[in-house]
Amino acid sequence: MGNISIKLFGKTLRNPVFNASGTLGYGVEIEPLWSVETMGAYVTKGLSIRPHHGNPTPRVWEERHGMINSIGLQNVGVDRFFDTYLPFFRKKRLPIIVNFFGFTEDEYVACAEKIKPDRLIVALEMNLSCPNIKAGGISFGKEPSMVFKIVKKVKGVTKIPLFAKLTPEVKNIVDIAKAACDAGADGLTLINTMPAAAFDAKKKSIPLKGGLSGPVLKPISLRAVHECSKAVSVPIIGVGGIMDAMDAVSFFMAGARAVQIGTATFIDPYAIPKIIKGISDYLDANGIKKIDDIVRTAHGK
Amino acid sequence: MDDIEGKILSNSSIAPGYHLLRIRLSRSMGTVRPGQFIMVKIPDGEVFLRRPFSIYDYQQGILTVMYKIVGKGTEQLSKASKGTSVLTLGPLGRWFTVDRRNIPVVIAGGIGFAGIYSLIKKLQGKASIFFGCSSKEEIPLLRDAVRFDPLIATLDGSYGFKGNVVQLFKNHLKGLKGKNVEIFTCGPVNMVKSIKGLIVPHKIPCQVLLEERMACGMGLCFGCVMKTTDAEEPYKRVCKEGPVFNLWEISL
Predict the structure, then answer these.
(1) Which domains does chain B possess?
(2) What is the pLDDT of residue A1?
(3) CB contact under 8 A, B216 and A74
């Protein structure tokens, strides 16, 4: 099997495949099927300074080539996550990326401050798709100036490398990417779900508004990764509609250093281990020694 | 629990809008307990997320599911013919627990029967069974439980007691006074709510099997939650902490 390990912020990860935040529970649930340390790193469910209850049902809706979810960021809170689940990842020696969010700048800062540097933590990943309550509910990730301000504040309180996870629902994602990097983001996660609505024509109603994910998102995400990786030099994690190893390889070529898998796991619970094996097979079959040799190879083409 | 391939042995209508699906699995699912469910999908079909179904029966490598056609997923499934390949992920979820000291009473509404039949079978006639549905057209659902003498209510009165199953059960509640009764139920939310209203003064223990729209079926996505009385974390996953809940711990 080819070497598919990667280095991220000085840490060696087994492979460049992670779960997308919130699509692999707290990491323990998948264990009956495959060991969570099969992945290069586990990305936590989005954590907040206080526990968050989330939304009433319906929370999920299937579309033709994707799904809409409105979980509402249900989570046990940053404290309980570290008390209850960190020992599990420590025992498994599985590096983690801690995804977090807030509804005010103070909540982001407080949450980032709570998370102390730890050998197990590769990076933080800040979810910028949350509504900013103090700015009338507009998402933090919509305007370059807002992104710059919040990323700068968070960087001021943590020494852990920081990924900014961007929303695709913006005028120009490259401007947002630049603003995040100018403010000190050490990496970008591209992209979050796309705001969407389910519609029930029989009942003339909208049963669910939420984030669209799944294969329908892949071309949007690939474009974001391609454009942003030309504009900034920080590592990029590609996420959005990756269903198989060739999708993942496409993201590397477009400029991603690593990928995250979300909806594919709901379609096939073995999607992640299959993708990891498929990437390795691809490198072997093409005589490629390491992932970095294909990263950004689509640039200029 | 695992994702297991299977082939459809039969998939026939048993009543208007209801099907009985039998699948031969390529390998064992392990131990299946009453109340557990599976996530089923037809690979390469138009529907890409699996759909949750109670395990109606499982023996000698043959899995049986009784289902009602309610949407796109079940509609597609109802058209699948003998020999079609399917994927079944399971067995999933928390099951009914039986305390032998209690007298079991089963109350099922409509397709809710499919979720509770495996428990009825396990109790081998020890349970009093109350079944309610709209009309006599749905009586064939009870095919395998007829031997346990269920009491039947139909809303239109075309078979058995005229009215809903909770009214029927209410008529028998007096006779259960002073006995250690435990209720097991599955059916429409309104039925469960009215059972709750009826038995509140009697403080009867009750386990309820719930339904919810699901994406992953194994606790990964938090898409299928039920509000509970737990103040710290009210929303519990129907697929993981359920689908069987203590009635007194959920907020209906």
Answers:
(1) 2-92 (2.40.30.10), 103-209 (3.40.50.80)
(2) 56
(3) no
